[in-house]
UniProtKB/TrEMBL annotation:
GO molecular function (one): calcium ion binding
Name listed for the protein in its UniProt record: von Willebrand factor A domain-containing protein 2
Compositionally skewed regions (Basic and acidic residues) per UniProt: 752-778
Name of the gene this protein is made from: VWA2
GO BP terms: calcium-independent cell-matrix adhesion
Source organism of the structure: Puma concolor
Length: 778
């Protein structure tokens, strides 16, 4: 009969031949993300002075099959290391009953030699004496290493079933500055792996059975210490929920059976009920968090349009399965119409503020646009320029008719660095950006400048932008939220600005840019005099994100008017827990200053009352004292989600009776009854489904405002007479009868003692504007 140790060895060999039939570590992400994790493991490169030592378990409990998989993991990691005497040094040590040095860190200076010797390692067998191997390193250090002059990384590949204590020597190694990764094989005991690993443990415990996942996890952790870097700046390390499993043999009570026991000191045999147990193998799960690097996939930007399906082909290639109507088009997107005759110059910021990554994204966007938009029959011609301190026209407009040549030229445009002088670049583009492509007369196509930037300009942009637009250049802007206001000022309209939140979102702007290149927005009622006040619901029911959408909508509307004291005046009121005048009618005399002030309007929160806000407008905004002009049409546009509008019916009626037109823009899937009651006799109500849809209703709003601006005006509504003076219409004009103690055309001056009795019938020509000195608060 074999002894117990022999039976144990036989049992271990039987188990060692069992390969796990299910993942022992499972990251709970989509199949697409698993593919990205696998691909990203091949896109990370480690090139730093560092010593990496593999400590590989070669004991019987691991078995020869798992030992081979451990070697495969080590070789895969080496593919990402810049192995050389001055950079990454790699060594290997195998342990079973005793540790055995396979090759020291200074043995080989090339990846080929290291991987060849890693593959030639022979399975040793023996007990699992992980603690002895760690003590060996405590005594002798990293064999062939550079001591503590460079970072030291120990990668322990084991099943975690040591026959000795591992925590004390592992702790001593970590206290000496060694970074320890614990990588499980077969059915690992995770508690021991956690005792071996450095902090944070979830980032230093891996599973070698899933080689690419484990390699990604190890390199992701090293990238946080700048030892490794991803090939693409858009690759990111992100946490994912995962589950770790281990196989354990547990004892289970089955029942009881009769058993016979002898009694000491007697010859009697006792019969008793004895518990009967069985042994079974169970899989135990341990929830965890796994940190992995993922890189943008070719299909992340959803390049296939019109219902097309994107099929990735490797890391950066894809093809589209298109619906029948778009089967012959790249990206399932129609090309620019042959009727659209344009010369397009892409102007790319290449400054330090934009960064190299931002510049490369802009170039990639231009390439994607050219491929998706220009067909054989297209009459659009493309050029590319970059700028920082100076403008450089890298690809003159119309120089390349062949698509591959154009794309190669794009790839060769270098990054510049330096200051961000957007204004200077715009002025130079207006003068020489289109070069010989600039024709004259009827033969000249529309000229468009598409500015791509992520960095605010360090010089003035308003003047150069006006100069460029005066030369009949259409300016379009593409950038991040940080430069939205500047791009709106440059282009002259929010409708000519595309804002993106990240790299993927940038590439989704291709189709929208196509639409803007040949579109011509309808003009507003530019020459009409108008006093216009916007009232924005800034209550908690709207929220800051939707409030920002309303601000953008108001800016877009304001750009359709000629803002100056003689034509259109614009004011803004916001209301939430309180009412606040962001700026009055006579505060800003230019369109640019109105745009800036709208962007700076505060979000208030709290419970809003539209009625209180409208009364505030009636009493303190639409008055002569606050800049309202006699004889000029007046309109108020209220933007609200509907909550807090229950008390607005009377104030709306009061404004309308006083000659002020009121339009209510109600936002929400269902139009609230409280808003319906505010429509008035001319149905002055606009329903918008969501705040994001406001921009689609701009033309309807402008049409309503311009219609109200053409209506006849009652010169005494609202009354131009201050201090309770009475307005009297007379012969196409009006006069103010002032109360005692007041005098002047609008009763704006106090009477002095001894003055002759004032004429109670001071007449005022409505064509004359109220003197600025009579505006209180000026």
């Amino acid at each position: 009969m074999p002894s117990f140790p022999l039976l144990e060895a036989i049992f271990i060999f039987l188990l060692s031949g069992v390969r796990p039939s299910h993942p022992l570590q499972e990251v709970h992400v989509s199949r697409e993300t698993i593919g990205k994790i696998s691909a990203a493991s091949k896109m990370i490169w480690c090139s730093a002075a560092v010593d990496v030592l593999f400590l590989i378990d070669g004991s019987y409990s691991v078995g020869k099959g798992s030992f081979e998989r451990s070697k495969h993991f080590a070789v895969t990691v080496c593919d990402a290391l810049d192995i050389g005497p001055e950079r990454v040094r790699v060594g290997a040590l195998q342990f079973g009953s005793v540790p055995r040095l396979e090759f020291p860190l200074d043995s080989f200076s090339s990846p080929r030699e290291v991987k060849a010797n890693m593959k030639s390692m022979v399975f040793k067998g023996g007990r699992t004496e992980t603690g002895l191997a760690l003590k060996y390193l405590l005594r002798k250090g990293f064999p062939g290493g550079r001591n503590a002059s460079v970072p030291q990384i120990l990668i322990v590949v084991t099943d975690g079933r040591s026959q000795g204590h591992v925590a004390p020597p592992a702790k001593q190694l970590k206290e000496r500055g060694v970074t320890v990764f614990a990588v499980g094989v077969r059915f690992p005991r995770w508690e021991e792996l956690h005792a071996l690993a450095s902090e944070p443990r979830e980032q230093h415990v891996l599973m070698a059975e899933q080689v690419e996942d484990a390699t990604n996890g190890l390199l992701s952790t090293l990238s946080k210490s700048d030892i490794c870097t991803a090939a693409s700046p858009d690759c990111q390390v992100q946490p994912h929920p995962c589950e770790r499993k281990t196989l354990e043999t547990v004892r289970e009570l089955v029942g009881s059976a009769l058993c016979w026991r002898g009694s000491r000191g007697t010859d009697a045999v006792l019969v008793a009920l004895c518990p009967f147990s069985s042994w079974k193998r169970v899989v135990l799960t341990h929830p965890a968090t796994c940190y992995r690097t993922t890189c943008p996939g070719a299909c992340d930007s959803q390049p296939c349009q019109n219902g097309g399906t994107c099929v990735p082909e490797g890391l950066d290639r894809y093809h589209c399965l298109c619906p029948p109507a778009f089967g012959g088009e790249a990206n399932c997107a129609p090309k620019l119409s042959p009727e659209c005759r344009i010369d397009v110059l892409f102007l790319l910021a290449s400054s330090a503020g934009t960064t190299l990554e931002g510049f490369l994204r802009a170039k990639a966007f231009v390439k994607r646009f050219v491929q998706a938009s220009l067909g054989e029959d297209s009459r659009a011609r493309v050029g590319v320029a970059r700028y920082s301190g100076e403008l450089m026209v890298a690809v003159p407009v119309g120089e390349y008719q062949d698509m591959p040549d154009l794309l190669r030229s794009l790839d060769g445009i270098p990054f510049g660095g330096g200051a961000t002088l957007t204004g200077g670049a715009l002025r130079q583009v207006a003068e020489r950006g289109f070069g010989s492509a600039a024709r004259t007369g009827q033969d000249r196509p529309r000229r468009v400048v598409v500015l791509l930037t992520e960095s605010p300009s360090q010089d003035d942009v308003a003047g150069p932008a006006r100069h460029a637009r005066a030369r009949e250049l259409l300016l379009l802007g593409v950038g991040t939220e940080a430069v939205r206001a500047e791009l709106e000022e440059i282009t002259g309209s929010p409708e000519r600005v595309l804002v993106y939140t990240g790299p993927h979102d940038l590439f989704r702007q291709t189709r929208e840019l196509q639409g803007k290149l040949c579109s011509r927005p309808p003009p507003g009622c530019q020459a009409r005099s108008l006093d216009l006040v916007f009232a924005l619901d800034a209550s908690a029911s709207v929220g800051p994100e939707n409030f920002a959408r309303m601000q953008s909508f108001v800016r877009s509307c304001a750009l359709r008017f000629d803002v100056n004291p003689d034509v259109t005046q614009v004011g803004l009121v916001v209301y939430g827990g309180r009412v606040r005048v962001a700026f009055g009618l006579d505060t800003h005399a230019t369109r640019a200053s109105v745009l800036r002030a709208v962007s700076q309007a505060p979000y208030l929160g709290g419970v809003g009352s539209a009625g209180t806000a409208l009364l505030h407008i009636h009493d303190r905004v639409m008055t002569v004292q606050r800049g309202a002009r006699p004889g000029v049409p007046k309109a108020v546009v209220v933007l609200t989600g509907g909550l807090g509008a229950e008390d607005a019916a009377v104030p709306v009626r009061k404004l309308r009776n006083n000659g002020v037109s009121v339009l209510v823009v109600g936002v929400g899937p269902v139009l609230r009854e409280a808003l319906r009651r505010l429509a008035g006799p001319r149905d002055s109500l606009l329903h918008v489904a969501t705040y994001a849809d406001l921009r689609h209703h701009q033309d309807a709003l402008i049409q309503w405002i311009c219609g109200e601006a053409k209506r006849p005006v009652n010169l005494c509504k609202p009354s131009p007479c201050m201090h309770e003076g009475t307005c009297i219409l007379q012969n196409g004009s009006y006069r103010c009868e002032c109360q005692d103690g007041w005098q002047g055309p609008h009763c704006g001056k106090r009477s002095l003692r001894g003055d002759a009795p004032k004429a109670r019938g001071s007449r005022r020509d409505p064509s004359q504007q109220l003197p600025r000195s009579e505006h209180p608060g000026r």
